[in-house]
Amino acid sequence: MSQDSKELNDGQIFVFKNTARKPDSREPEYWGKMKLDGKERRISLWISESAAGNKYFQGKISEYGAEKVATAAPESDLPF
After folding, report:
1. CA nearest to 42, candidates 27, 22, 55, 21
2. Which candidate, 14, 8, 16, 4, places its Cα nearest to that of 38?
3. Could you give the 3-state DSSP secondary structure of residue 76?
4. Please, which pLDDT band fits residue 5 given cuts at 50, 70 and 90?
5. Cα(68)–Cα(24) distance, rounded to whole angstroms?
6. Residue 7's pLDDT band (cuts 50, 70, 90)
7. Neighbouring residues of 34: CB distance < 8 A, sequence distance ≥ 6
8. How far is CA 58 from CA 18, 32, 55, 76, in A?
9. Tens digit of pLDDT for each residue in 23-80?
10. Where are any strands of DSSP class E within the chain?
11. pTM of this structure
12. How far is residue 7 CA from its own chain's centroid?
């Protein structure tokens, strides 16, 4: 299934293996997207292991664009 071949419905998630991940990278092992209350969000998942040796997914949900930082000041703040 192509990553963009199907529309995401409310309450649904798509998760994909991060095939571009380099060994020992801090990047998520799996990534995806979800739609909740009509808003798309990004999903990042890592495989973790409990003290008892049980493997589980540990994850983070974030809004698209939340990681972007403004790089230019608004025009009205320019000194000239």
Report:
1. 27
2. 8
3. helix
4. low
5. 24
6. confident
7. 8, 12, 13, 14, 40, 41, 43, 61
8. 15, 13, 10, 43
9. 889 999 999 999 999 999 999 999 999 999 999 999 999 997 655 444 444 555 555 4
10. 13-17, 30-36, 39-49, 55-63
11. 0.69
12. 17
Maximum Cα–Cα distance across the chain:
63
C-alpha to C-alpha distances, 10 to 41, 54, 64, 66, nearest whole angstrom: 11, 31, 16, 20
Residue 37's pLDDT is 92
Q: Both tokens of residue 32?
A: 């995806």
Q: In which residue are the tokens 């890592």 written?
A: 46
Amino acid in the structure at residue 59: G
